[in-house]
Amino acid sequence: MFSHFDPSLMRFLKTLASNNDREWFNDHKQDYEDKVRTPALAFIGQMDHWVPLVSPHYEANAKKVGGSLMRVYRDAIEHKPFTEHYELAGDKLIRPPKGYDPDHPMIEELKRKDFIALCRLEEKELYADDLCERVASRFGRAQPLQQFMCEALGLRF
After folding, report:
1. CA dihedral of residues 79, 8, 61, 114 (deg, nearest 10)
2. DSSP symbol at 7
3. Any residues with CB less than 8 A from the CB of 24 and at least 6 apart, and which?
4. Does pLDDT of 3 surpass 90?
5. C-alpha to C-alpha distance for 36 and 125, rounded to whole angstroms
6. 60 near 44, Cβ under 8 Å?
7. If you average pLDDT over residues 81-99, what whole number do you get?
8. pTM for this structure?
9. 68 and 61 in contact (C-beta within 8 Å)?
């Protein structure tokens, strides 16, 4: 049963940030499997208990491919000090959507292709035995945004 991550996770990710190229990664793929992917999949598996409490239509899928874990190549890795706050992230259109005024006060939000709510954790929280509960609590605090987005898109929440 997963309880928390090991500090080797962050050591690997910090090293990856300084060597962020495919060749280096391929030479260290087993380290990635051992220190990142396997523990992350165990975390996702444990979160499957908590995620339905946010919405019965959500699931945490611990599959290596096609599950809840994003591909390592997908996003750049940031290693700034973690602070607890929420921010929106996601891909954006280059130009405003057709029919929208480019000077609209919310044009940057209207250009979003997706909405991803992020909540940073202190690194020490990754090693806490109650990590899953802490993450689930933060998911719960984001429920109003999730519910709004689902309802706006006509999705079940």
Report:
1. 10
2. T
3. 16
4. no
5. 16
6. yes
7. 74
8. 0.76
9. yes
Whether the CB-CB separation of 117 and 145 falls below 8 Å is answered with: yes
**27-85 confidence digits (pLDDT tens):** 999 999 999 999 999 999 999 999 999 899 999 999 998 999 987 754 444 444 333 45
Tell which residue, 35, 20, 58, 25, has the closest CA to residue 157.
58
Rounded CA-CA distance 38/32 in Å is 8
Place of tokens 């933060």: 138
**Which residue has tokens 């309880």?**
3
Question: Mind giving me the DSSP string for 78-117?
Answer: --SPP---EEEE--B-SSPPTTS-TT-TTHHHHTBS--EE
- Measuring CA to CA, how many Å separate 12 from each of 27, 32, 45, 142? 13, 7, 22, 29
Per-residue pLDDT, 86: 62
Tokens coding 38: 């396997």
Residues in the chain: 157
Q: Which two tokens stand for residue 110?
A: 């209207």
Residue pair 59/144 in contact by the 8 Å Cβ criterion: no
